[in-house]
Amino acid sequence: MNKVKEWIMTMIDQIKRKSHQTEDSVIYEDPIDSKPPKEGWIAKFQNWVIIFMRDRYGRFDSLNQFLLALGLIIFMLNIRHNFWVVNSIAMLIIIGAYYRFLSKNSYQRVKEATAFIRFKKMIQYKTKILFKRINDWRRFAYFECPECHQKLRAPRGKGNIKVTCSNCHHQFVTKT
After folding, report:
1. Structure confidence by residue, pLDDT tens digits, 12-35
2. Global pTM value
3. Beta-carbon neighbour count of residue 100 at 10 Å?
4. E strands of the chain, at which residues?
5. What's the CA gap between 75 and 126, in Å, rounded?
6. Radius of gyration over every alpha carbon of the chain, rounded to an integer in angstroms
7. Are the CB atoms for 150 and 167 separated by under 8 Å?
8. pLDDT by residue (tens digit) across 88-133?
């Protein structure tokens, strides 16, 4: 319990010290912090990267992930055959991903990423419907409304039935 009180008191003391300091006067609690930062080649390189990446897109979004994965998969599949054309295509895909990452036109990159996400969701939706139809093909018959082309389903094995479209309320006879 005494250690907790001691810790709380040191935290309060540090807060009080920091509230009294100005922009010009800096209070160092640690003797390690009182030394000026080292200006080695790593620090210079970090500063160069920070300056270089300023105002760049610099996001590893889902489109960049897809492009890099696609390029690497094409490289992996081509290791055995080693066709230069396929390697060139894979390299262009990877270069395109890096171009997007380092581009300064952020607005265009966001539009591209949004269009890719919209396309990906559409593909996921279509495959979900396809797998649902594959799983239900024994129990249900699928057909379209002749007026509005709405996709409908009805139980199989009922013979000729009169169907009312849920979208346009058109009635038609079909066989299930």
Report:
1. 666 666 555 444 444 444 444 445
2. 0.61
3. 21
4. 140-144, 151-155, 160-164, 171-175
5. 29
6. 32
7. yes
8. 999 999 999 999 999 999 999 999 999 999 999 999 999 999 999 8
